Amino acid sequence: MIETKSSTIRRLALALLIGVAACGNFTAGGIETGEARVTLTGDAQPSGPASLAPAHAPPNVAASQGPSPTDDDDQPEGEVEAEFRIYLVKDNGGLTALTDTDVRVRVDLEGVEQPQVASRIVDAAVYTEFRIAFTEIEAEVDAGLIINGEPVTGPIDVELEGPDLIVDRPLAIDLGDGEVVEILVDLNAADWLQAIDPLTGTVSAEAFASFIEVRVQ
């Protein structure tokens, strides 16, 4: 049988349509998408029932046996600088990158500043986890950090045991077409700074990771 040029074109168009539909939710109007926006704070108070506190450290980080969260009266003053990449994880395990490269941001330890660190159009889908890969974390404490009755100031580094520190947090996001989800990453700096080793001026990756919170606003 001789295949005409028009039938060949129709077959190619059908194959392309099937391929595109496999990449995301596809309707007569095109692929369904929503928007994910991420902000970051040095230390914020949880608000509302959507707050997701870390029940345990991420799978690749041992649970911290460090100090309890601090009182508001002991709030350290200064700044924390972090470099990281962030992702959403679909219910099928697929990763959706919200940043193309490492993002570097500096915020105050008190949680006043909450800059937006990512905004991206993503597939309308069910997302079950938030992943942040830290490549550097350093705090500069000006005042307010008391360890064993003594004030501690100056630079404090989080000791990474590899090129990056992966922190995963569960989320429940069912993102519909045209919807926007806003996510807050809370570093809870006042808590992990209490785990400082005064001799080295460092905090372990385990202690840092155990206090990170992620919640849908």
Could you explain how this protein is built, in words?
This protein has 217 residues and is mainly beta. Helices cover 13% and strands 44% of the residues. The protein has two domains: 1-31; 32-216, no CATH class. The protein has three helices and 15 strands. The strands form four sheets. Strands 4, 5, 6, 8, 11, 12 and 14 form a seven-stranded mixed β-sheet that branches. Strand 9 and strand 10 form a beta hairpin.
Quickly describe the structure:
The chain folds into 2 domains: 1-31; 32-216, no CATH class. Helices cover 13% and strands 44% of the residues. The protein contains 3 helices and 15 strands.
Q: How many helical elements?
A: 3
Q: Note the overall shape.
A: elongated
- What level of helicity do the residues show? 10-25%
Q: What series of H and E elements makes up the topology?
A: HEEEEEEEEEEEEEHEHE
Q: Alpha-carbon distance between the termini?
A: 61 Å
Structural class: mainly beta
Largest sheet: 7 strands, mixed
- Radius of gyration, rounded? 22 Å
Average the pLDDT over all residues and give the rounded result: 82
Give the SSE layout.
Blueprint: H1 5-22, E1 26-27, E2 30-31, E3 33-41, E4 77-90, E5 95-97, E6 103-108, E7 116-123, E8 126-143, E9 146-147, E10 150-151, E11 154-159, E12 165-174, E13 180-186, H2 189-192, E14 202-204, H3 205-210, E15 213-216
Parallel strand pairs: 3-13, 11-14
Antiparallel strand pairs: 1-2, 3-7, 4-5, 4-6, 4-8, 8-11, 8-12, 9-10, 13-15
